[in-house]
Each structure stands twice: as structure tokens, then as C-alpha cells.
Amino acid sequence: MAASGTEAVITVQRPTTATVLIVDDEDTTRNLCRDVVADAGLRTRTASTTEQALEILDQSPIDLVITDLRVPQLGGLELLKRIRGTYAQTAVIVLTQYGTIESAVEATRMGAADYVTKPFHVPELRNKIDRVVRSLEIDQENRVLREQLRSRPGFGGLLGVSPKMQRVYRLIEKVSQHNYPVLILGESGTGKELVARSMHFSGPRQNRPFVPVDCSALVPTLIESELFGYVKGAFTGALHSKTGLMEAAGNGTLFLDEIGDMPIDLQAKLLRALQEREIKPVGSTERVSISTRVVAATNRDLEFAVREGQFRQDLFFRLNVVQIKLPPLRERKSDIPLLVNSFLEKFSEPTGRVRTVSEDAMAQLIAYDWPGNVRELENAIERAVALGSGPILHAGDLPSNLHYGAHDRLRQTDEVLPLEELERRAIMRALRESSGDKLAAARLLGIGKTTLYRKLKQYGSESESPAPMN
Ligand SMILES: Nc1ncnc2c1ncn2[C@@H]1O[C@H](COP(=O)(O)OP(=O)(O)OP(=O)(O)O)[C@@H](O)[C@H]1O
Ligand SMILES: [Mg+2]
């Protein structure tokens, strides 16, 4: 699905100037090649051994390698083989000696883009370089286009253009085709249920039932009979047999929401059901086989619950086959305008009034930290639309805690704070500004990435640990 009012703009960037690595132990050929390449307006690097060449390839992006086949130590063919194995996007032109056409053929068979026989004429080499670089450019343009087509403003009801959400969409797409359990983690209001739904409705089970079970809302004594069903007379008041939700989900998806709140004694029964793919309705002696897919979600730190003995480790392992961790809204602020506009449209629809948000109001919406995540944002917009008077939403129409939030932050920066707290805030700020990209945040802070990781670990905040799966 696409967000209304947000169309993906496809722009083709010109690839940056290509870098060409010339590998030859003969100074004259190397220098001549370098001049031809530089003349073509491309950047050059040179190496006289394969070892040097591999080192350069390891350290910097190289678009094209021009290598002699008789270069020490490994030889050009082995170098070509390694480039094909490790640097799939690097093209290779080989230089062969006159009369050794077999090796040139062998090189093309191994994936060289072209070959030039020594001694060569400058225009011939120049033509071949031009051709290869042009095809590299086309490849790169196609890659950029494909990437842009992939990046969407939304997926299955989820909205967000941020790289973190794009990663979530890709993961959903991948796991929706399979049967294994998925554990969705994230703070309250980050969209865990929406992810479970989009996983179900974009996969092969879309025409089967999607059965949500709120493990925190069920009365503990009833969870078992709800999940597994019961037979007539199983307990007082069981006047009829009832199919449990696990069985009712059939070949669909059973969504165990708030799994962290499931009573420990029931966890063992759930584990057995998942392992044996069989259940026994309460009061029954017969076992019923189940084929439903299980997706669980929680905003609790399950690993902590396991350490505290509140959650069974074996059940955690069973459910945690693939983990989807949803980023809190404050770590993907670039998505706020899209969400605001979409909620605005949704809530102003009944009144028919077209509304927009003033720049001031949008700035406040972006500045606020949204501890209640998307749900809080959605509620704030709903309220503002209901209470606002004109077609434009102004900062004054927004809930007052948004203003306090901004004010508090200003005030706090003036306070004298312990160094450690200042450091923590600087790190959080840098992470927010770099949309959670730790390398970029470390650069902003002028520290190494390992130092940043160490400090994040020291603070021990769940939301700052590296994403579990890319
Ligand atoms: N990425 C998103 N795009 C659009 N709407 C979203 C997104 N994420 C969440 N929402 C909306 O926010 C609200 C909360 O989402 P959801 O119920 O899925 O959150 P949750 O993570 O399950 O929260 P909780 O832990 O409190 O149960 C819903 O109305 C949902 O439609
Ligand atoms: Mg939920």
C-alpha cells in the first residue's frame, strides 16, 4: 500500500567518477595505463603485485581493475578469481602478451570484462576502458533505481520511509513466506500488532484465519481452555465442547500478543504444543494436531524475564527463531511527517475539512520524543483534529505535554549535570540525529564505534542495542 500524498520520487544519480586500479610490475606499462586512465577523466590507483592490489581492493572501492596476467605473486588469473569472488561489482580488464590468446579466453571465461593484447595501441585501451566504465555506470544506475523502487512509504498498513522501517519491511516480506515462529519486539505503540498482521496478509496464509490472543487480558485460569479448547463437562459450566484458538487458527496465524505476560505454568504447555504440534483440549484424552503458524509479540525485555526466572528459556528459544525488533519512533523521526499527514487525512475525513500542519506544529511534533510511539502520535493528531478550529493545525492545537517536552529539554541543557549524564545525553542526541546509525553517531561525537558500543552497553538500554537482524 502507498501513503496518500507521498509518491516515491525516482531520481537517477550520476555515478561518481570511477576509480581504476592498474596492476602491473612493469613500470612503463603501468605508467602508460595510468596516463590513459587519467586522460579518460577517471581516478587511478596502481599496484605492482597482486598482494598490493588485494590490499587496495580491501581498503577502498575500486570500479575497474586493469591487470597484467603475468603479475607477481599470484598472477592475473588468480587475482581475477579473487575479485570475482569478493568484489562482485568490480570489473576486470586483463592485459595479455602477444601470442597467449588462450589465457585471454580463459580470463573472459572467468568473468573478465575484456582483454587487451600487449603491446597495445592507446586508443584501443581507451575504447575498452570507456566501454567497461559505461556499462558499470548503467549497472549502478539500475541498482539505484531498483533500490528506490524497493524503498516504499509503507508496507501492509505500516508507514515509514526511514531505513529502519525499510529493513522491517524486507524482513516481513522474507519471513511471511515461511512457517517458523517469529518474535516481534518493541516498545508499546511501535506497531507490533500491525507487523504481525502484515506478515500474515502478505504471505501464503492470507486467506486463512489470523487469530490474535492477548495473553495479558485473558484470565489466567481461562487461557488454557481458550488456547487449547475444552470438551463438554471438562469443568463446571462447560456445557458444550469448544474449539481452542490454536486449533481454530488452522493453517493461519496465531498471534500471541503480550507473550511476556503469559503465566509460567502455561508456558510449559504452550512449549509442548509448539514442539509436538499437538494439543490436548482441557478434559480430553485425545490429541489434536495443529498446523498454525505462531507469531508472538511483547514490549517486555524477554531475555531479562528469562534471567529473572519469569519466562521459560526453552519457550523463548522456541519463539525467537526470527526476531523483528521495531524501532521506537524517536529513532526514526524522519517518518513523523508522513505519519502526521496520514493520520491527519484519516481523522479529518469525516469532517471533510482538508487540514494541514503549520511549520511550527510540525517542528514540535518532530522534536517531541514520543514515549508512547506511533499510538501516542496517532492519538495526539486525532485530538488536535477534533479540537482544532481552522483548516491548519497550529502548535497551540497540540497536546500540552508536547510544549512541556520542548521546554524541559531547553531547561535541562542549562542545568549543571553529572558528566556521565551529559555524556549519555550527548550520545542519545547523536544517535537521534543520525537516525540510529551508530557509525555516523560515533563520527558526530568524535569517538570510535567500539567506544560507542561499549558506552551503550554500559547504559544497558534495550532500544540502543544493535538491531538483531538485517
Ligand atoms: N508504522 C506505522 N504506520 C502506521 N501506523 C502505525 C505504525 N505503527 C503503529 N501504528 C499505529 O499505531 C497504533 C499502535 O500500533 P500497534 O497496536 O500495532 O502497536 P503495538 O506495538 O502492538 O503496541 P502495544 O505494545 O501497546 O500493544 C495502531 O493504531 C497502529 O495502526
Ligand atoms: Mg499490541
Q: Top keywords for this entry?
A:
single chain; about 475 residues; alpha/beta; Rossmann fold; Helicase, Ruva Protein, domain 3; 4 domains; five-stranded parallel beta sheet; about 45% helix; disordered N terminus; binds adenosine-5'-triphosphate; binds magnesium ion
Describe this structure in words.
With 470 residues, the chain is of the alpha/beta class. The protein has four domains: 19-147, Rossmann fold (3-Layer(aba) Sandwich); 162-325, P-loop containing nucleotide triphosphate hydrolases (Rossmann fold, 3-Layer(aba) Sandwich); 330-412, Orthogonal Bundle (Helicase, Ruva Protein, domain 3), CATH 1.10.8; 418-464, Arc Repressor Mutant, subunit A (Orthogonal Bundle), CATH 1.10.10. It has 19 helices and 18 strands. It has helices at residues 27-39, 50-59, 76-86, 101-109, 122-150, 163-176, 192-201, 220-228, 245-248, 264-276, 302-307, 313-319, 336-348, 359-367, 373-387, 400-414, 419-433, 438-445, 449-459; strands at 19-23, 43-47, 64-68, 91-97, 114-118, 154-155, 158-159, 182-185, 210-214, 229-230, 242-243, 253-257, 278-279, 288-289, 293-298, 322-325, 356-357, 392-393. The strands form six sheets. It has a five-stranded parallel beta sheet, with helices on both faces. Strand 4, helix 4 and strand 5 (114-118) form a beta-alpha-beta unit. Helix 6 crosses helix 7 and helix 18 (438-445) packs across helix 19. The chain is extended. Residues 158-160, 186, 188-194, 299, 339, 374-375, 378 line the site of adenosine-5'-triphosphate (ATP).
